[in-house]
């Protein structure tokens, strides 16, 4: 492949190989972490099983001892004595040091002396050894542990070291020593810590883990000890020495036992009709040995023994297909073996070793990022034939993950997030689709489907992380997020052909980020609405301002201010941005945002309306028009569009509208009326402070007072300033009702000193004239309650006047009659009625 490549291409290929190796290492480490809990559980079960096996071994040993005791009680002392005598002879011949004779060689004598010297030195070095293990001539040193130090570890806490120890292996004993420092001398001395018979202990290797490394177990029923070496070489050296010596010892014991049985059979033949217990045991062992025949033919054994070299040659020539076929044939032959004999175990181990090596090479080819579909499927088929389906699946999916990561790094980002996400989704989902196609053609076993779905889930999580980092973490506009999601969902559609409907999975994974983005966007919208209300001058928008935008603002049919147009723009932009994101899962969030927009606008408008700033009547009229339009027109339209989109009613917006209608009604009939009433009664018609104490005569040309004229003028201005779309007459009628109700209040008929109010001859008639004129010119605004209140005011004024006269004042003339007041009102109406066109227009529009 690389013969015709340039140096740059070779370097790029080398870099790809390094990336593939690193990605495989990362995925392998991730799988280790993922399966760590199961590994710990299995390790505990294995540890428990080991303990149980050693307990069983101890029980069997005890049972064997009981049988021997029973044999002694069964009058077999002679036979047992002969056995012990022969056994001692054999043991002395095989294990004891050879006694030097004149015919012995100098090398043998030197070795014997060396063993005795080592053992003598050992007894002198280790304190307390001679008391526990008396010296014998047959014992000699196998391994000196003076220079090798090991650490004893607490089995419950593998990170805690109990003490440092040394191992000495003798021909029949395993010694564990530790060094202790003398308190007085200050010198270190070797002290015996444990002493075990070699036949009673077992040394088991412990695989390295995150908690401990270079460790091994020493099992002696019922105890378990864990030790750790400083280096891996020291551990391997000790384990190999112990295993090699114990194996040799077992072979020697078996040979000695066979010799004993042979000599016993020759010296003391058993009667034909009586079988001794030892003879019965020997027969049973012979039968067991015969039962352990593997029943393999000579040709099969020869072929299997030569198979390893042939597989090595095939692997070297990369002829993997033939090698896999030979391994399959070898497994079939081994499966026919009747028993697991040593040669079968040896052959099986050789075959499995070559199988693992072959599987590694095939897996490397499988992980090749430039392999074609046919090559990938062929390599997977080889691994499946070798019985490594899980390994084939893991390597294949790992390689596909590496390819996806590499292709993701090749996607360029030119500043446009939506284009980058579109390219990214196209690359990732196309590779997932191809992987699904290749996987389905290679792994036809349905049990492998779950592994592939886990892989797809992992890749979707990775895509979601990139999407979240590139889109949501940058806090772009909601329209950009909507475009990115739209591109992603578009590239998800081809996967439906393979049964992968991943759009809901991605939507669910990104749901919290979408909700947070909508929340942040709605917060900005709320701030824009508040700013629009605060900066609004509340004047009806000039038609020139919306020239060319008639289609954009076609839904605004009232004379409203700019803040309403800005609210409308916020609503339209929000609806356009969330249209792609809109789903039933986001229903609550979207409805909440819309209710916040409307409630924020109305609440802010009420705050500005009731603020300290002095607004003109026209501005307050525009405020009320804005509120009415938003609640009665704009809100129902938004609710209707949202109901059509979700295909259901929106009760939240309906409840919000009812609440806002109450606020708007209060704005018109409470807030506005209260502000105007207080302003009029304070600055224009402060009835309690008006002076009607004049006691002079009243002329036939008398006119209404200046105060009542100013009141009528203000009402005329209010009538003209209020929009026709508002209930102007109802609002003004309420104001007039409250003004006359206040005139009847007790405090209006008392002086600041809490004395009764005085009305003069001229003053009482002027008051009656003012009220008559007011009722006449403001007739459409006079309700029955106002008419009754006016009559009561006039009556109370006359009573007050006559009460004062009864106190001793002299009445100069009679009071004017009702006809006089009607005549004066008609004359004044003819002269100045034109000054109040809005009130006259209201009279003309009212029914007669």
UniProtKB/TrEMBL annotation:
One of its GO terms (biological process) is exocytosis. The keyword Cytoplasm does not apply. Pfam families: Exo84_C, PH_EXO84, VPS51_Exo84_N. It is found in: Cytoplasmic vesicle, Secretory vesicle. InterPro entries: Cullin_repeat-like_dom_sf (IPR016159), Exo84 (IPR033961), Exo84_C (IPR032403), Exo84_C_1 (IPR042561), Exo84_C_2 (IPR042560), PH-like_dom_sf (IPR011993). Keywords: Exocytosis, Protein transport, Transport. GO terms for cellular component: exocyst; transport vesicle. Residues 84-111, 260-286 are annotated as: Disordered. Its main location: cytoplasm. The keyword Mitochondrion does not apply. Residues 100-111 have a biased composition (Polar residues). Signal peptide: none annotated. Gene3D superfamilies: Exo84p, C-terminal helical domain (1.20.58.1220), Exo84p, N-terminal helical domain (1.20.58.1210), Pleckstrin-homology domain (PH domain)/Phosphotyrosine-binding domain (PTB) (2.30.29.30). SUPFAM superfamilies: Cullin repeat-like, PH domain-like. Residues 302-501 form the Exocyst component Exo84 C-terminal domain. Belongs to the EXO84 family. This is Exocyst complex component EXO84. It comes from Powellomyces hirtus.
């Amino acid at each position: 492949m690389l013969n015709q490549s340039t140096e740059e291409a070779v370097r790029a290929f080398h870099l790809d190989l390094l990336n593939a190796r690193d990605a495989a290492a990362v995925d392998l480490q991730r799988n280790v972490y993922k399966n760590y809990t199961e590994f710990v559980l299995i390790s505990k079960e294995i540890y428990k099983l080991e303990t149980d096996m050693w307990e069983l071994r101890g029980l069997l040993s005890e049972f064997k001892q009981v049988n021997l005791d029973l044999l002694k009680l069964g009058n077999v002392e002679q036979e047992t004595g002969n056995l012990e005598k022969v056994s001692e002879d054999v043991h002395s011949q095989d294990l004891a040091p050879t006694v030097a004779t004149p015919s012995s060689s100098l090398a043998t004598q030197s070795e014997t002396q060396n063993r005795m010297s080592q053992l003598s030195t050992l007894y002198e070095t280790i304190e307390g050894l001679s008391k526990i293990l008396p010296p014998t001539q047959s014992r000699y040193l196998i391994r000196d542990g003076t220079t090798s130090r090991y650490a004893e570890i607490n089995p419950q806490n593998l990170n805690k070291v109990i003490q440092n120890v040394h191992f000495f292996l003798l021909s029949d004993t395993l010694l564990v020593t530790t060094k202790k420092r003398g308190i007085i001398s200050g010198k270190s001395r070797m002290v015996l810590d444990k002493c075990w018979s070699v036949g009673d202990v077992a040394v088991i290797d412990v695989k390295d883990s995150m908690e401990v490394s270079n460790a091994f177990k020493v099992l002696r029923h019922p105890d378990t000890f864990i030790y750790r070496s400083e280096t891996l070489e020291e551990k391997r050296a000790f384990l190999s020495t112990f295993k090699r010596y114990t194996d040799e010892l077992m072979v020697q014991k078996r040979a000695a036992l066979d010799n004993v049985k042979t000599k016993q059979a020759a010296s003391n033949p058993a009667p034909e009709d009586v079988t001794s217990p030892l003879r019965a045991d020997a027969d049973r062992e012979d039968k067991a040995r015969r039962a352990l025949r593997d029943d393999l033919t000579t040709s099969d054994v020869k072929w299997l023994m030569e198979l390893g070299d042939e597989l090595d040659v095939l692997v070297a020539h990369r002829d993997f297909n033939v090698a896999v076929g030979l391994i399959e044939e070898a497994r079939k032959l081994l499966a026919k073996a009747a028993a697991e004999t040593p040669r079968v175990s040896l052959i099986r181990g050789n075959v499995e070793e070559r199988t693992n090596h072959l599987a590694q090479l095939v897996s490397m080819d499988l992980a090749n990022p430039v392999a074609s579909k046919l090559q990938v499927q062929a390599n997977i088929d080889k691994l499946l034939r070798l019985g490594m389906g899980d390994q084939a699946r893991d390597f294949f999916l790992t390689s596909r993950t590496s390819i996806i990561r590499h292709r993701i790094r090749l996607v360029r980002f030119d500043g446009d997030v939506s284009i980058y996400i579109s390219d990214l989704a196209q690359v990732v989902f196309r590779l997932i689709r191809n992987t699904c196609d290749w996987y389905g053609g290679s792994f036809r076993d349905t049990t492998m489907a779950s592994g592939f779905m886990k892989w797809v889930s992992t890749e979707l999580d990775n895509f979601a992380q990139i999407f979240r980092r590139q889109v949501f973490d940058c806090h772009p506009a909601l329209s950009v997020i909507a475009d990115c999601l739209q591109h992603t969902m578009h590239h998800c559609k081809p996967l439906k052909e393979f049964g992968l409907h991943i759009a809901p999975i991605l939507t669910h994974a990104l749901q919290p980020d979408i909700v947070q983005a909508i929340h942040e966007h709605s917060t900005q919208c709320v701030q824009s609405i508040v700013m629009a209300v605060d900066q609004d001058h509340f004047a009806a928008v000039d038609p020139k301002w919306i020239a060319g935008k008639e289609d954009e603002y076609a839904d605004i049919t009232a004379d409203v201010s700019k803040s309403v147009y800005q609210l409308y723009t916020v609503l339209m932009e929000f609806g356009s941005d969330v249209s792609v994101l809109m789903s039933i899962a986001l229903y609550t969030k979207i409805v909440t945002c819309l209710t916040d927009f409307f409630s924020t606008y109305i609440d802010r408008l009420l705050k500005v309306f009731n603020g300290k700033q002095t607004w003109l009547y026209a501005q307050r009229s525009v405020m009320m028009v804005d509120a009415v339009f938003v609640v009665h027109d704009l809100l129902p339209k938004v609710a209707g569009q949202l109901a059509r989109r979700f295909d259901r009613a929106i009760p939240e917006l309906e409840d919000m509208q009812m609440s806002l209608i109450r606020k708007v009604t209060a704005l018109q009939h409470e807030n506005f009326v209260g502000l105007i009433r207080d302003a009029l009664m304070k600055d224009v018609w402060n009835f309690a402070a008006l002076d009607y104490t004049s006691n002079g005569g009243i002329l036939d040309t008398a006119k209404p007072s200046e105060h009542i004229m100013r009141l009528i003028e203000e009402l005329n201005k209010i009538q003209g300033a209020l929009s026709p779309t508002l209930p102007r007459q109802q609002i003004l009628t309420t104001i007039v009702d409250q003004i006359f109700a206040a005139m009847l209040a007790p405090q209006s008929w008392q002086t600041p000193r809490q004395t009764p109010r005085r009305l003069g001859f001229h003053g009482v008639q002027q008051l009656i004239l003012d009220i008559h004129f007011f009722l006449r010119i403001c007739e459409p605004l006079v309700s029955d309650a106002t008419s009754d209140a006016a009559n009561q005011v006039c009556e109370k004024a006359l009573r007050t006047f006559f009460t004062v006269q009864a106190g001793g004042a002299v009445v100069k003339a009679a009071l004017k009659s009702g006809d006089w007041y009607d005549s004066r009102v008609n004359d004044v109406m003819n002269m100045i009625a034109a000054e109040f066109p809005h009130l006259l227009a209201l009279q003309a529009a009212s029914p007669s």
